[in-house]
């Protein structure tokens, strides 16, 4: 399925590199628009701990909490991490509804996963008055979270490629809350006039996306992906 999930032909999210200063981040992006940051951190040590073999050895018997991939009414299911990796981590079925699709993202037990997160180097920028919280995820190709919004944050891809779609707070996207991102991309996206299309881009390992407060966003994993977000609450 991964080969059937297209990358967007161009990236419409602005990019910045390690030369971006904190003051310029606050001025240009923190409260106004998303940005893709490249080369701002080195998470090679964290990435080495996130291979399938290393994660199964460290966390295999521990439970993880899975969420359904819909927008408003999340159902939670607890399974051993090894069961998720070996039996549930697979490509998205295009015919399944979001409420029937289980997704590992967030809801981590920080007592058990804390040692892993200690090796993660978060982006160097913060929003005044907020504190960071991590959310770690692993998902199959074609999976993703449909449109939703919350506070500001960063998201980094560790393995795989992750496609993002973003709308500003005053531009509510057209979507069905129980439709997966893959179904939206196949059915709704092609009907959108250019002026109604979202900002979009594909993140690759080591790249970090920043999204401001209340920006609508949906995600689509083009490959089996490992990713971590830093929410600023």
From TrEMBL:
Cite the JmjC domain residue spans from the record. 99-233
An annotated GO cellular component of this protein is: nucleus
What Pfam families does the entry give? Cupin_8
Annotated transmembrane regions: none
Q: Name one GO molecular function term.
A: cis-regulatory region sequence-specific DNA binding
In terms of PANTHER family, this protein maps to: ARGININE DEMETHYLASE AND LYSYL-HYDROXYLASE JMJD (PTHR12480), JMJC DOMAIN-CONTAINING PROTEIN 8 (PTHR12480:SF21)
What name appears for this protein in its UniProt entry? Answer: JMJD8 protein
Native species? Helopsaltes ochotensis
């Amino acid at each position: 399925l991964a080969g059937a999930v297209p990358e967007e032909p161009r990236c419409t999210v602005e990019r910045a590199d390690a030369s971006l200063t904190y003051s310029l981040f606050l001025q240009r992006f923190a409260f106004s628009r998303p940005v893709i940051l490249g080369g701002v951190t080195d998470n090679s040590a964290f990435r080495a701990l996130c291979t399938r073999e290393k994660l199964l050895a460290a966390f295999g018997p521990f439970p993880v909490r899975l969420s359904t991939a819909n927008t408003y009414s999340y159902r939670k299911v607890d399974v051993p991490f090894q069961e998720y990796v070996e039996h549930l981590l697979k490509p998205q079925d295009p015919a399944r509804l979001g409420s029937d699709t289980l997704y590992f993202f967030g809801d981590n037990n920080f007592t058990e996963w804390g040692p892993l997160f200690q090796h993660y180097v978060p982006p160097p920028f913060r929003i005044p008055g907020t504190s960071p919280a991590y959310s770690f995820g692993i998902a199959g190709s074609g999976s993703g979270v449909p449109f939703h919004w919350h506070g500001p944050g960063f998201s980094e891809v560790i393995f795989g490629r992750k496609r993002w779609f973003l709308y500003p707070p005053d531009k509510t996207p057209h979507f069905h809350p129980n439709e997966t991102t893959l179904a939206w991309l196949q059915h709704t996206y092609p009907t959108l006039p250019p002026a109604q299309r979202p900002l979009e881009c594909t993140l690759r390992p080591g790249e970090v996306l920043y999204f401001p407060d209340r920006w609508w966003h949906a995600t689509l994993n083009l490959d089996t992906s490992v990713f971590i977000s830093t929410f600023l609450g």
